[in-house]
Amino acid sequence: MATEWVCVQRQQDECRRYLDQFKVLDHPLKQSTITVLESRGTRGKVSTTANGVSLSSNNSAAMSAAALSLDPLTIAFDGSDPLSQFAKQQSTSLGKDPLSRMAAEMESSVSVPLSPLGSRNSLGKGKEPTNLLELDLIEPWAARRGAILNKYTTSEKLSIVTSFLTGGETIKPQTTMSEKVKYRLEQLDDFDDGSVRQMLDLSQQEYVVKIEQLNHELVQAWNQDQRVKALKIAIQCSKLLSDTSVIQFYPSKFVLITDILDIFGRLVYDRLRTKADYIHPGTREVTSLPESFTPDMVPESAKETCQNWFYKIASIRELLPRLYVEIAILRCYSFLAQDEFGLALRRLTKMIRGIGDPLVAIHARCYLCRVGMSLTLDRTYIGENLDDILAVYHTIFNGGIRSEIARHRITLNGYLSLYLPALDWILQGVAILTTDNQLDDILQRCKEKKNPALLLQSMMQSFRSDFIASRATHFVQILSSISVEGLSRGQLFRLLGSILSHTPPPTEQRAVVLASAMKTISSLGNVEEFMQCAEMWAQYTSQHFGLKEIDTFLGQVLQQMTPNRLYEQHYHELQVIVDKIVSNAQDVHGVLALDNFLPLLELFQKETMKLEVCKNVLTSYRNATAGDNALINDPIVTNALMYISRVLNDSVNALTGEDERRQISGLVCHFIRKVDFGRDFEQQLAFYVEARSVLSNLDSALSTLIHSVNRLATSTRRIVKGQHTQKTAAFVKACAAYCFITIPSIIDVRTRMELYLQSGQVALLNSCLQHADSCFEAALNLIPEMPRMVETDGKMQSTEGFIKTFVVNFLSTLVIVPDNPTQGVLYLLRLLLEVVPKYPFESTSSMLSGIYLHVLDFLSVAAQEVYPYHIVNVISNDELYGSDPKFIAEVNELCCTVCDKLLQHLKALLESNALRAQSELALDLFLKIITGADLSVDKMFTLTVNLWNLAVKNRSAIDPKQLQTVVMYTEHLAHITQVESQRQCLWLLLDKMKSRM
Q1: Among 167, 249, 171, 262, which residue's Cα sits nearest to residue 215?
Q2: Is 162 helix (H, G, I), strand (E, B) or coil?
Q3: Which helix (H) or strand (E) covers residue 791, if one does?
Q4: Radius of gyration of the chain (CA)
Q5: Tens of pLDDT along 533-579?
Q6: What gap in Å lies between CA 934 and CA 6, rounded to an integer?
Q7: I want to staple 63 with a disulfide (CB 3.0 to 4.6 A). Which of 46, 303, 445, 773 is the partner?
Q8: What is the pTM of this model?
């Protein structure tokens, strides 16, 4: 050996943390601030504070640059943090976000609606509402438009009649007023000639494109001052609404056509307003009409133009386009008279009675009500439209309509659904500001009709949910007894269940409503309708009832699904039911223990569906129990969750994605941590044994089980206060054996090493020495198996840092681990020194030399008479050997071996010209020697001097302060060392060190 290391006895605290000590003036995380003060016209004095140290300078520009260089955000935000700057910018229009700017711009032009309680918006200067839509009590039409277009589609071919899609028209020049009038009349009469063309066999997408082209043509014609052409386009679009050849597409066609009519009406209104210049009374100043103008402000010329528009529309021969176009420009009546809206709306309501097709008529009434609600607060015409609808409601079911339905090859249910968008809007308008008594009258009138299911469905969708909920018992009775031709009773009960799930009925009605509704639903005779209803009523049941009612509800579902394996056709509905029951129930543990819950889960025979359902159940359970301290100790609940966890575990295989595996592991681990049988530790361990057999595919679950068992063993020791009885000693040995047997099932090597080390520490704490030795030995034998690079969060990372951290932790534990008499002195350390070099360290890495330095620290402690820490009832090597010379000799021999390896590494660094790494390693080894070795040995003293000379030789590669600190530390050791020979050697060494500085 090149060295002759002899460990010395030293005080435990003589060098502890000495080299890490340094004085600071302020907290290192305190933010540095620089304040620049400048006076106008002169350069002011700059006062700078950085971590509590004050500086001053006359060069403010230079200090400003220094300040800005510290924090780039200072440049952009004038020294304040971003959030404060953004908040400050909100006071200006430029600082507002786009939505806020849009809202600010609209506030100036859009009147501020009243809140549902009738109070004025405090931001809107108290402007009174002028129409029903501004009350904000009705869902906007724009919110319904997309749903209608998505629902009412068709695959049949469509047709369109128009004369404006193949090119523009020839415009004849007109010079006199009589010629203009004559030409416009000729244009209006042009419908009778052959210019009108019919486009056939259009797909739905092509039809929509053609409608958009008509919209574009209308706007283009208007912008080119071709008013009559624009009117003709509006008339032709309106005529399209009389075509019901593809009846199932009619609601979508209504939406598309009325969009064009709305644009036409807005163009006419804006044109009239621009022509109506207003002269302020007593002045000659001419301005445009204000937003809330009155008819007496409108000049006669503008009124005459407005009347001409209505005269043109009145000359349209056909009823339907005359109605729609007049409704489109209905707002223009505001130029003529103050109270004209109400009269016009009631007149148009009566005109609609001339439309024979009830589907066309109800959509015309819908458009009339939609436009009227945006014009006036009057609701009389809406009630009249409802009266007319009820008066002709029976015609929907007459023979002619049924023949038409048969010709279109659609069901009565499909035909009645075409009425819903228009009927819903009208009934929603009826319900605005209507008392409950008035709504009761409407309900009574509707239910007296023959086949009132359509009316009741629309009523439940349109009326206030609290009105429906307060009369839930009455609605259940009505829906159970009325005729439902054309609709299904299940569809109505499904809608009612949806309403009651969000707005529950009064407490005294809830049980009666559930019992009556489920009695009717169960007797529907159609399993599909039953499941659709149960899907909605599951949430109502779980929210407002206890476990008994929920179990009864699940039993009814099982009764319907079990015969003839009907559940195979209703997996989706069953999944929704399970999700709603678990997520909404107040006692999730009680739900899991219900008699009918696990049988319901057994219905999912399809693996993918079963996996999804079980995952949702565990997710709901985690969400419900994440914020509380509720633990599981009910065997039934435990078994239910164990069954669900087994399903998730069995779904994991080699093809399972990492995210999926992580999600499943998180759910299962949460369940494991929630199981607690209190002081019944044997039952707790039995649960962990069962869980191990079930969760063999999830490394995270196995790790959680091992941590839980170690915690169980530690809790046992705490209860007996470290003094194990025969029973508790056997129990903690069983825990140690459980961990030792389970760890090999884990795939990840790092996880196994950490768990072996932790389990060995727990076993050592409980005086299970053989189990601890086995765990430590198994952990060390895994070091050669550790790959050099592993993937973490999608990135490849080196494991060298983990190896070093693990070894340091292991060495700190090894201090108190007694040697096994059959294995020899420090056999675990010898095993460590054997396996560590087998790890594939990088050639330029300093990790291995760092590990050897830590081994020298351990050996220095191992040679002391008394170790710095112990475990109760565990006899460490200081007591076991009693500083026996043979033991100390073995320690010194190991020190020499490790020191030789470090010297070999120093030589290799010299050959590779790594001067900085060589100097640092030499300095580190120098510190280890002067701290733990006997310098009176000539070889060690010579080696120490050589190491210092080597470090000083390359002083340019290391920090000079570091050399000075080492000198101070050596002087500190010379003062405190008790051994005289060691003190003399240190002083001599110190002189040699200073001579080389």
Answers
A1: 262
A2: strand
A3: strand 789-792
A4: 44
A5: 999 999 999 999 999 999 999 999 999 999 988 899 999 999 999 99
A6: 5
A7: 46
A8: 0.73
